[in-house]
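Input sequence (345 aa), recorded before submission:
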Amino acid sequence: MSEDQQSCGQRHKQIDALQLGPRKRPGVTDPLVHYGHHFGRTVHALCNFQALLTNGILRMGELAETPEENFTAEERRKHHIFQELLKSVAGLEERLMEGGDDEVDVIAELLTKGASGAWGDDTKSLKGSVLDWITPKGQNLIPPLARNVKIDCGFHHERTGALLCPAGLDWSNSETKTKLQSGEIVVTRDQWPLFLYADYHYDSEDPWNGLFRSALLVSAYKHIFTSPSSVDREPKATCSVTLPSIAYIATQVRFSLTSSPVFLHTDTVTDSERFYNSILDVFEDLDEKQEVDDLVVWWNRQIFPSYSTTQRPLIKNSALARIREKRARMKESVSVSNNGGSGTL
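Predicted structure, token format:
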């Protein structure tokens, strides 16, 4: 046997067809992708990270001394989003200030990948689940809707059409229904759909009544922010609901009900980006602060049953109570000492 044949035989002996081959080294996902996931769902879903970072760096550098009032409301809003990003990603500010343009490009790409990935995953996950939630228990949708094909959804179906019908319009009116189906009535971003309201009922005299409080939104929120199997049970997480996350869920559910197969920023039919921003505009309107604050409390109680806005008094003689009592005595002692010292000067 030649040396080549022996070498070939040795190579063949090293491979056993009945054993698993060498394990591939698992890929490591950059933490910024995970931050992008979270940021997109809870802070802002549709921002341009490249522009956000570039403008944010300018504000921290060349424009650091520029008075706040010199910036437009939109510029201040975007800078607030940038600051929220800095808070959520440890060490990001140093990385941006010390790195060059290439580093900024990489960071923007990773954050975009995370936010886009979360949006895509949630869109896919909600597609079939939303159909389950809008189907009355013990009944079937007539005609039935396919879980993976959306062409018959939107205003083309009685159930999804009724839920997407703008508040203030009457879906049961045949003329209205026909015009919505044909596109003769164009739904704009400020014509919010009925599914946003509790029990899908709109009160024209009190448009805040029940707004963003529908059971459909709550089910979708639990589905995305806890786990797909946790819709009917208490979530494991112990955090607080954010206003952008409510807007995110509303936008996702709205898209799930439409007949559009693919989400696009430029889609003028669903106009999801404008719809999402219109909700954020109301949430950030200072004139609506009382209603918005009440909404946040309501949501926290739906998602976290143990949530409470009241503070429980400390138990007498507990460790925490004694710590605070001692700290108060020390502060009082220092205050008396300082006052006495200043009086002798």
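Checked by second reader. Confidence is low (pLDDT under 50) at residues 7-15, 17-27, 229-238.
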